[in-house]
Write a structure and sequence with these properties.
This protein is of the alpha/beta class. It has a single domain, classed as Aldolase class I (TIM Barrel). Strand 6, helix 4 and strand 7 form a beta-alpha-beta unit. The chain binds phosphoenolpyruvate (PEP) and manganese (II) ion. The site of phosphoenolpyruvate has 9 residues, from loops.
Length: 263
Amino acid sequence: MKTKTVKIGSHLEIGKDFVVMAGPCSIESLEQFENTAKCVSSLGVHMLRGGMFKLRTNPESFQGLGKDAYNIAKQVKNSIGLPFISEVTDPRQIADMYEVVDMFQVGSRNMHNYVLLKELGSIDKPVLLKRGFSGLIKEWLLSADYIANGGNENVVLCERGIRTFETATRNTFDINAIAYIKENSSFPIIADPSHGVGKTSLVAPIALAAAVAGADGLIVEIHPEPEKALSDGYQALDFAQFEELMMKLPQALAVNDRTLAKL
Ligand code: PEP
Ligand code: MN
């Protein structure tokens, strides 16, 4: 099925050429986000990612800087000059976050949060809808319709791994979903190999596999010092590892005659 494109700002179009979003799981400090943003931007990334509100399984775990991250995000995205995506976890955050983000991310745990989806359907900013870790593709597409039917058709899907009987990896990245969505839906789809595998050494192979399967982009977690990360360090790439992935990507994209989006 022909993929509809989703515009981010004035020049970026998801669903056309391949788009890479990268950054830390969580924004931890100005220094950490700025250093990461500088590195990924120098490697040709199109968008910055960085969690501000974190939905953690353990209530004792770091929950994100919340509103304290707004100024850090604004400062860094303006100085680097790249659009910024971050997860919204509650409809009450939308009004303030609207001034900070260029794309709202709906996390895996909120794919079924229809109140949040409807609210995002009533605004004009693009939305990245992650697949629930127990969500059927059918349910995921209906969640996308909740947003689109409200009038906001700027929805991009993100496969981030599902829960299966397998425990060797954090999740099982469903490569089928990439090819299936390309064939059966007009929403663009990107891949999140970081949560899909939950292990640094496996991120690049699955990122490349997703590109070959036809994904329209990637969202990848990067940290200057993964072992010190306040969330998801075990799946973060350091700068050298990310550089290696970026060098290999063009070859994977060439399989489908695709290229990285121009900056
Ligand atoms: C994230 O992107 O950091 C995140 C929490 O992802 P997910 O919702 O896919 O678990
Ligand atoms: Mn994460």
